[in-house]
Amino acid sequence: MDARAIIAQVRRKQTPSQDALAWFAQGLASGAVSDAQAGAFAMAVVLNGLTDAGRVALTQGMRDSGDVLTWDLPGAVVDKHSTGGVGDCVSLILAPTLAACGVYVPMISGRGLGHTGGTLDKLEAIPGLNINVTEDQLRQVTRDVGCAIVSATGQIAPADRRLYAIRDVTATVESVDLITASILSKKLAAGLESLILDVKCGSGAFMKTPDEARVLAHALVDAANGAGCKTAALITDMNEPLAPALGNAVEVAVCMEVLAGNTVAAPRLYDLTVALCAQLLVMQGQDPVDAADRVTVAISSGAAMERFARMITALGGPPDMAEDWHTHLPKAPVVGEVTAPAAGYITAIDGEALGLAVVGLGGGRRVETDHVDPSVGFTEMIGLGDKVERGAPLCVLHAATEDQAMEAAMAVQAAITIGEAPVLGSLIIEGIS
Q1: Is the pTM of this model over 0.90?
Q2: Residue 80 a catalytic site member
Q3: Residues 332-344: what's their mean pLDDT?
Q4: Which of these is catalytic: 15, 59, 65, 82?
């Protein structure tokens, strides 16, 4: 095999064979493929694309470039992936809820990217918690608790780690083919039987329109099923934050409220979590009505909270998280309301701007080495269609300094449009299987 020949095939709009793409992925992991060759390959794919078969082959090759886990558990091994948004903390509720329903969730998660928050950053707001575990620890926690939310080891899809770093500096990130292989190679390396995808669209998502989200959803579902993992997707609305909180500790706090049974604290977050959990159970052969009932009971009974608390303890966090989470989560020193400059209805929310405002507060990273302040963010965020009076709160702001608070308050006011008539949308736009 020769990297130059494979690149030339893609340049000529030809699809390399499965063996060729598998060899290229191994070369990315081993270093046999140079940075220049990886960049040229990525650019050729961006410009000319891959066929459906090529997309599957690249996904499988990148999956197989490192360790691929296998499981011997008394239940199905499943997971969820979100394409990213603001106020999206579904994973923290979904994983323990599914564990309480009898399936196993070894969830390999990531950190914040751009304006979107990262599941691992949110979890690390919990003192003492360690998400950097060995494969043996991942297996132990998954078996004992039913779920484990952790970071990827160095041996999970190393080809993707290498190619993504190169794509990031060669303007080749925005390719459906490369996005699909990147997402799925890591997820499928976890040895899943079923996967549900939450493909978001709107102002707070990377995909701004339903059509863009639909293209990506079909690519992901087709490639994952082609690679042997039963997969479906929901296209969901991200024209407003999913939870009424944005930030790390504040999103954990909202999740704890929901797990404690206070589902009205975050109705959109709760409804989407139930839908995603139920869909995964249906994919395991359960009746749709029974599946939804099992999920709601798992939360309302406290069984999901119990699993979450056990997972936190197993990963080094506080042993009393379920009972005393208020005292464990860090709190920002500056707290105050951001008020509405006019009266009317909330007609638009720029979710990306709100996410970047959290980054500006220190709740995310501008560069990889930035320190994340887990305490900052927004709570009690107003929603689309809500009526507001002039001077009434749009949200509560949590900041480290007064200067940061003032800057973030102006960003919030600029991100929220107030008009004369309410605007409402659907949370779940479409299902794809």
Answers
A1: yes
A2: yes
A3: 97
A4: 82
